[in-house]
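Researcher: Good morning. I'm working through a list of sequences from a screen, and I'd like to move beyond sequence-only analysis. For each chain I'm collecting a predicted structure so we can compare shapes side by side. This is the next one on the list. No need for commentary yet; just the structure.
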Amino acid sequence: MSKNIISLENIAVSFDGEKVLSDISLDIKDKEFVTFLGPSGCGKTTTLRVIGGFLTPDSGVVKFDGKDITTLPPHKRNVNTVFQRYALFPHLNVYENIAFGLKVKKVPDNKIRSRVREMLELVNLQGFEKRSVDRLSGGQQQRVAIARALINEPKVLLLDEPLGALDLKLRKEMQIELKRMQQRLEITFIYVTHDQEEALTMSDTVVVMKDGNILQVGSPVDIYNEPKNAFVADFIGESNILNGRMVKDLLVEISGVCFECVDTGFGENTPVDVVIRPEDIKLVEPDDAHITGVVKSVTFKGVHYEMQIESYDHTWLVHSTKAAEPDSTVGLTFDPYDIHIMNKMEG
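Model: Good morning. Structure tokens for this chain:
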């Protein structure tokens, strides 16, 4: 079982009297790819800055390998950071940018040459040593920034939305590349993004944040299939989120109709949020379903059709490989294990 490499204990941060992190605690395991996911302003970059030493929390403790590093400056932590804007030195070529950290440490030239060659191979930039960074594409610049951060052999690499400036195709390619690098190097990557697809694609563990709080920590599969509340369900993929009433264990009322489900422990006649993913809904003949609706829109998405189906109290989002006719009436069915019950969120 992996040990914890970083532990955050009751970390609180405020800016101008406004709380940005609300006493959060989190353990990050060695050699994991961990992603902080959430909307702008949720506290994910602030958390990254606390780990990197760029920001001292108002209260709480940051531990690295079990040692308190809360007040340790960034250059004394075995952590390096890749920023969204890369921060490359424009007057230095690719080789000089990557070698910069080792030259500052006065590492012998022969060792620097060897390490730079390793990094160029890792990021697939062999032959680019003498290229000016101004003549590189955005993706190549990002690779140089990653190589420069990794050449110092940190135990943890922090990445603050590093793919944000890239086009969609290149972002998808770099997602795969980053995961490959992390697995090959066997070090901890801590990644910040507001893009749920990036989080699901690359991560071993996803940390979902909102308003300075951690709402859920888990594997991408667990968070997608078993969201803890409506915010997580809505942020991780598309969802139908409905008001429901837990009649009793294994039975929930949705839109005035009772459905069998697999959830227990909510109590009887308890108001709940119900999540049903669009891909889990099947379209059937109206007479074969308890819920019917009128197809308001049909959009082809490549691998499936996305349909908006208006029922009397809710507009359902449905994904299917077969399209229904616009303005037709259809039935909606789903299995008990496709119904996810959650406590109502406070506030």
